[in-house]
Amino acid sequence: MQTHYEFGHIWVTEADDEIKAELFYSRSKAGKGFEITELRKTADMQDSGIERQLMAGMMDYLKSQLWDWIDSYQGRPFLSADGRYDVMGFMQDFYGEVFGVDITDNLTGMVDQMTAVPLDALIPGDAVFWGLETEPHQVAIYLGGGKIMTVAVSDGKIIEQALQRYDQPSFARTLR
């Protein structure tokens, strides 16, 4: 079987191109995350566990959009309605758009919502935090190669920067 992807639609075919199962999804009406709108499967796929394969395919497709998303956000201002810098809004947008996951709007809640990952096992898209796990004070998205993306406190713009040897993150979380 082969899995096919396009935004909003994941489907599985056999060698003869017959569609065996397909999943349709869309952005949630709340504006964050995604919702499944329809699941179709042939009679012989009813007890196959194909839903799990389709959901994994959807997550893989969304993750593949990571670099396009990063490129589109680089240098953009990201400020709240009152004009202040807003790193949590940035993190919510990132995880909502790239992974289809609603993230809480506070750092401690975000730490609790995600799974711990060692700092030496980071992959692009993981969240790195500074401070204590019970009292984090900053967060960024790990991009790989020792680089992160966050919102600059000085001007509220989304920036990519190298992790500094003297200012390493304290811990990390993931959605893997």
UniProtKB/TrEMBL annotation:
Residues 48-176 form the NlpC/P60 domain. SUPFAM superfamilies: Cysteine proteinases. Belongs to the peptidase C40 family. PROSITE patterns: NLPC_P60. Keywords: Hydrolase, Protease, Thiol protease. One of its GO terms (biological process) is proteolysis. The keyword Hydrolase applies. This is Cell wall-associated hydrolase. It comes from Weissella oryzae (strain DSM 25784 / JCM 18191 / LMG 30913 / SG25). GO terms for molecular function: cysteine-type peptidase activity. Pfam families: NLPC_P60.
